[in-house]
Design goal:
The chain contains 13 helices and seven strands. By secondary structure, the protein is of the alpha/beta class. The protein has a five-stranded mixed sheet with strand order 5-4-3-6-7, with helices on one face. Helix 6 runs antiparallel to helix 7 and helix 7 runs antiparallel to helix 8.
Amino acid sequence: MRRLAFLAVLGLSVLASANEKGEALLKQIDAVKMPTWVQDKENDKTFMDKYMKEIAVARKQKNDLILNLYKEDPSNPRTLPLMRERWISFEAGNIGDGKAYAQRVSADIDKVLADKPTPAIQELGESMKIMVQIDNQWNWNGALSAIEGFIKKYPKSAEGPGLLLSASYSAPAESRRPYYQKLVEAFPDSKYAAMAKGALRQYDAIGKPFELKFKDAISGKPFDMADQKGKVVVVDFWATWCGPCVAKMPEVKKVLQTYGPKGLEVVGVSLDQPEKEGGLKKLKEFVAKNQYPWPQYYQGNGWDSEFSSSWGIMSIPNVFVIDRKGNLREIGVSDLEATVKKLLAEQP
């Protein structure tokens, strides 16, 4: 009896020691300062060189501490999300060849999995090995079968929907449908399933009427797609915080100036943040400053906005083009001018 009591006390002592070490490491992890990103300086070479060096140092420091936390206190509630962070941002700065980088991350994961980790870490590690391959190998042919194997092993895993969604991002537009279908089929109640349904809607809506009604956030005037029959309409899903979107805007403006007199209209669908977070103010200021004359549909709820979500918009910029008959003809347009010229040449 005394021996059992002694072992119980010893176990509690070891646990307390792990907790103390874990808490101490968490304080060090939280104290790591990441360099401040300045959006306006992304084209400033001096700033970018300095930023990339600083973030590489900070990321290594934080990741080393996270690994120590895993070794000392694997059951700490923060260990799992921090290990996810470690593997998502395994290295920073110039990571070099994507395939080689994926191999380095996978090797690190294998070391942890060989250590017989907690079931939660095991599941996370297996999912992250797939994720790193997806993220660093464009159009990885083995993605769908690897994900299906993971889902079969962990049918209720919260990682499954994210894997399918990430794989869809990394696949060419014409190859994404199987990922969306699997997501809807295997995880119908996931928040990502609604997005996948919207993405599938895009495929089925080609050649069908495109409906859109809203009040222009800039002028206050109503806009109704039904009133645009006879014109080609570009629908640009974007946001002021989106660098690639902002970079594309001058091209959109130029295309409108060139082809507006021939029957082209442009509409912006903003995924800017809610009004209480300054989204509407930023939108109005940006449009006024750059003199973009087309109507803006301010949805007011960022990525969770109803209209864009119903169309499965998961990345921006994303351009739809509506033909003279009011039907959706093109999605995910990259060569805007060529598409506009082609559709304007058609008879209403």
